[in-house]
Amino acid sequence: MISYIVRRVLYAIPILVGVNLLTFLLFFLVNTPDDMARMQLGQKRVTPEAIQKWKAERGYDKPLVYNDAEAGARKLTNTIFFEKSVKLFVFELGRAEDNRDIANEIRTRMWPSLALAIPVFLIGIAVNITFALGMAFFRATALDLTGVVLCVAMMSVSTLFYIIGGQYLLSKLWHLVPISGYAGGFDALKFVVLPVIIGVIGGIGSGSRWYRTLFLEEMGKDYVRTARAKGLAEPVVMFRHVLKNALIPILTGVVVVIPLLFMGSLIAESFFGIPGLGSYTIDAIQAQDFAVVRSMVFIGSVLYIVGLLLTDISYTLVDPRVRLN
Asked: Do 46 and 120 sit in the same domain of this protein?
């Protein structure tokens, strides 16, 4: 087990280097340091001297990835890529272009993101599995067909429709919850209720259909027919055998998502004015703040790799036949 984990960690290093380099190249293909300076200075007519001063103060006056003017290793180290991106591997995130500490911003903003993401995640799993079990239990009946049609219809509706419709109905028309905003402590509850409801409803279509497919696949296997032949009731077969054995593929999609809950929801946080990591990333992209963008992409990559590793480890807990060597 330990050797497997070590190998996976070592495999992750070139992946993170590639993601880091790709993010860097894509960002600077769209933007130049001069564009970033104009955006941050916030002036329509910025003097070349002001641009050069801004770039020099923040280290953007160097070549991007290769410095011909230097000798030896400094051809690679005295570059924007090395000074801005390599430090991420020791989780030195640095400062945003507005001089705020990125690590501190992440620590502050992660809690609103988790307050929204965790309830959506947990309630969504419970609702989707329950709905999928119901459809599988009443398979090939009118209830099953109605459920499948409903799932397809819900999958076909854009998330924006749920957000705008929910804000209009529950906030503007019925005045049950605030339309947007956020507050700390227990006051946060009234602000996250609507986003959580919309997040759960928006995921029922795709989630329930996927779980239903897994359950129906398990129900067609020999051990299920054997259980029925022994006289076990259908609910016992569904919950004691089908659900248990379907946990392995379910874990593939569940465990890998857990670390990514930290990253927040880009769309929901933006529409509901929640100051989480999702809205933080969107704001950084709009402001051409490369320091924040690279940090968030890097952290997201690390968390995704951690999620894959946790998925593999969780297999051994659900199915003892699986061994990691």
From this structure: no
